[in-house]
Design a protein that fits this description.
It is built from six helices and 21 strands. It has helices at residues 3-6, 125-136, 156-160, 163-170, 278-286, 310-315; strands at residues 8-15, 18-20, 54-56, 59-61, 71-74, 85-91, 108-111, 146-149, 174-175, 179-184, 188-193, 244-249, 258-261, 291-294, 302-306, 316-321, 331-334, 339-343, 347-348, 355-356, 360-365.
Amino acid sequence: MPAAAAALCEYYGYLPRLVRHTGLLPSTCTSATSSMAPTALHSSLYGADPSPPVRSGEFELPSTYSLRKPLVYDIAELPPKSVSSLRLVIISDTHERHREMSVPNGDVLVHCGDIQEGLNFMRDVKAMLTDFSAWFTDNTLHPHPVKLIIAGNHDKAIAAMPTEDVRRLFAPAVYLCEDSVVVEPANVRFYGSPRSISNSRWSPNTAFQGKKAWKPFMFASARQEDGPAAVSTAPRCSPEQPLRARFEGGTPGGPVDVLVVHQSPDIPRAHHSVEEQPVCTYTQQVAPRRVLLCGHLHGAHGMHRLPVPELVRKSFRVATRDGGGQPEGVVRLDEIPFLPCINAAMMVGRFGQNVLLPPSVVDLEL
C-alpha cells in the first residue's frame, strides 16, 4: 500500500443522538425528511458532494445524515470528537494485510470480518491469527478502550475453532458470534454476526454462510422500551469514566444500537430493491437504532442509506442543535431520515493487485 494511503481515514461525521418522541406535542417536532416511504438503497459511490458541515458541540463537524461521501483526512488531522460522543473506528476485509495499515485513535475499534485471505493454503493459519490478535490488541498501536471482532466468510479457520477458543485467542478484544456487548458507561449496545451470502458459486470461502447462518433474529428483549421520553444530559466519555465492554452473550439485554454484520447491502442495480436483500430484512428484525457496520462486498465500500427500522421510526426522533432557525441551545426533533450503513471493506482492485483503502470513522452522539 502506498505510504500516503496508510495515513488516511474516511470520516462519516457524527450521528445526532436519538430522543424517544412518544407523547411529544406536534409543535416540538418538525420533519425535514420523512422516512414513512421506503428509502432507496444508496451507495456513496454514486452520490453528490457532501452538504456543508453543521455544528456539533465545540467543533464544526458534519452530521452523518448530511453526507453522501465521507470526508478524507490525514489521521493526524482528524478533528477531535465531542466529549459527549463515542468515536467508532471501523475496519474490515483486511485479508492478512493488517500490518500494512494505520488506524486512527478512537473509543471503539471494530473489525467486521475477513481476517484471513482464504486462498493462501501454504501457510500457518494459527500463527497468522495469533499475529493478527497481537496487532489488533496492541495498546501502543491501538489505544482504543474497547475492541470488537466478528468473523467473515474467508475466516474458515475461525469457523472450525470452538467459540471459546476464539474468544481466548482474541482477548482482551471481544469476539462476537451472534452475541451482544454493551460499552459502558456510554450504554451503547453492539450486536455482532458473521453471516454473509456468497457472491460467487465458485468461491471456496463459505464460512458462516448458508441457511443455518441466516436464522431470524427473534429476541423480545431487543424490542423492549428502555427509556423515558426526555432530552437528558448526555453521558461523557472521559478519563474519569473509562470505557469498558460488558459481554451479554447470545441474548441482548435490550435494544441494539449498533449492528455489526459481515454482509453488506449491494450497490444499486436496476430492478434490485432493498427488500430483495436479506441483510436489509435482517436489519429490520434487529432494528439497530444508530448504525449498521459491515464489509464483505469490496465494491460496495462506502455509506449506504437503508430504510429506518419500523420500530425505531415509530419510537424516536433525531435531536438537532442550533438548526432550522431555532434559538441557540434549543433542541429540534426531526424524523430519522435513514439508517446509515458503513461498509468498511478495505480492499479494492483486481485479484493479486488489491489496494488497501483507509479505515472508516463515525462519531455517535450520546
